[in-house]
Amino acid sequence: MIKDLKTVILAAGKGTRMKSDTPKVLHEIFSKPILGRVLDSAILSGSKENIVVTGHGADKVEKYISAAYGDYAVCALQEKQLGTAHALMSAADKLKGYEGTLLVLCGDTPLITGKTLFDFVKFHNENNADITVMSALFDNPFGYGRIVRDGNNNIKAIIEEKDADIETKKIKEINAGIYCFNWKTVKDGLFEIKNDNSQNEYYLTDLIKWGIESSKKVFPYVLQSGDEILGINSKKQLAEATKIMKMRKLDELMDSGVTIVDPDTTYISPETEIEPDTVILPSVVIEGKNKIGKNCKIGPFSHLRGDCVIEDYVKIGNFVELKKATVKSHTNICHLSYVGDSFVGEHVNIGAGTITANYDSRTKTKSKTTIENNVSIGSNVVLVAPVKLGEKSFIGAGSVITTDVENNALAVTRSPKKEIKNYIK
Ligand code: UD1
Ligand code: MG
How far is the CA of 12 from the centre of ligand 1 (A)? Predict the structure, then answer.
């Protein structure tokens, strides 16, 4: 059954254990804040209206949300961080009059996928549930809230680590911190939650007990793999999540026919598309959004920094850095080059150590380099943008090119060689 869906993402917490001036949810995985990754999954699950609860570092978080998700998300301020239930209360104003399904997510669980959220919401709606709680079985459940079940295996309550006795601590089923609510029937319960616990916080998890006591339909939804709900609370967990996200991408690419020679040293962002029969050699880092064609060879030691479109049969070699570059088919950029804000045509050969000088640090502006089809560039050339090299032009090694070069021309800027005979006595 399709019902209205809105999402609240709790993102006001301080993230003390990150030991950082940056708000926890703005720490990045593959150059995207973890909050953005949670929002992407919410949007993929079908939630077009999303409310992000901000608090710690609210200015920075709000700036990011309005720049990156202006059409999809608004922020609600939680001035004091008094707990997860209090965080949801802070979003209640923005939900006035809403009576549909409400998905609640934490801003610090970036591995959750849109597909899982979609299935979760579907399960909640098909059961006509009031509350559905996502859980998983963890070998090491330390730190998470534990799912307590009764003799009939029905969910009874969620107990936080800090409030748990020895027996409760042994429970391996943990609360993911992801919930679906029938907002119409559940919102009153939210405002009844008290803060009588070890942390004097308003726990959203207490809504489960309220639901059961007031005869609401409460369901658990157990995930098969716990990976998706890994919460980021420390730099170690950030690295762990990066690794999982990277392996997901590499597995997907290898399954689709891309050769990854050494998965351990290869980093490819989830936003990169690569066609079959392309080979990725060791120690390659690909960030941001990129498209790479088939039968290319990338690496070893290449760095693509985003917004790159690489067509078929292209070679990008060692110590080559690309940013905002389009490279047409059968072109080679094999050694020690930087190509940024550039268009590079077909069958171009770029010699070792060629640099596009695209950035003016005085004016902080970038300019474009255009290299047309069949251009040949010798080694150690600087192309000072804006500049255009016409078709089949030939650039001599060691040149600094500051103005456009015509089709079929040879351009060379090189001081004449001086040779002093018998200089060494
Ligand atoms: C919470 C759950 C726990 C669950 C775990 C899953 C509660 C009481 N506990 O614990 O059962 O196993 O998540 O990862 O809900 N936040 C606010 N405002 C606040 C407090 C928190 O917005 O006042 C936000 C945080 O930014 C974070 C999320 O809520 O994104 C969860 O808070 P966190 O402090 O990480 O809770 P956990 O201790 O991990
Ligand atoms: Mg947490």
Answer: 9
